[in-house]
Description:
This protein is mainly α. The protein has one domain. Helices cover 69% and strands 0% of the residues. The termini are far apart.
Amino acid sequence: MFEVLSTPGASTLLAVAVIVIFAAVTIARTQNRSRAMDLEIILMYSIGIIGFTGLTSFVVHAFFGEAVAESIGWPTGSLFQLEVAGANLAIGLIGFLGFWRRDFWLPFLVAKTVFSWTAGVAHIIDVVQRRNEAIGNAGPILYLDFLIPLVLWGLYLGYRRALNEPSATVRVQPLADRISRRSPAKPSGEAE
């Protein structure tokens, strides 16, 4: 099973499947939905789960860096893998916290885009200059480095636009604010 998930791109396909399933179930169970709410649910799962995959990328690069370097076609024995692990940890934490914090969405999108597109450009340079066509360099990861941020930005901009659409059902508060805001309980014996 782990061999399948270690194939570049396979873990991303698994994450996309999980996002689609969780978002579809949540949307189906949500009443009084709007376009903004549907996009918010999709974004919540997309950013949160992609953030979680950043945490798993941290583990892979930090503890299995030699194998990752080999799959990319890069030299082993470099502390570069530890640097990449740290970047994945930071971006992953920001994204994972996006399950609960909508104010983390924009910083996650900026960081994920910069990191992914820089990595994608590095892969292209390596393909052109060194003819490195290793699966971890010129395979699915190369396309996903560009595609995932584009999809996330499309969802985010669609969500922001939907929030501004006039509709009685568009919510301006994130799902995390659905807990009723009650005043603190008064100590017993206090007059109302």
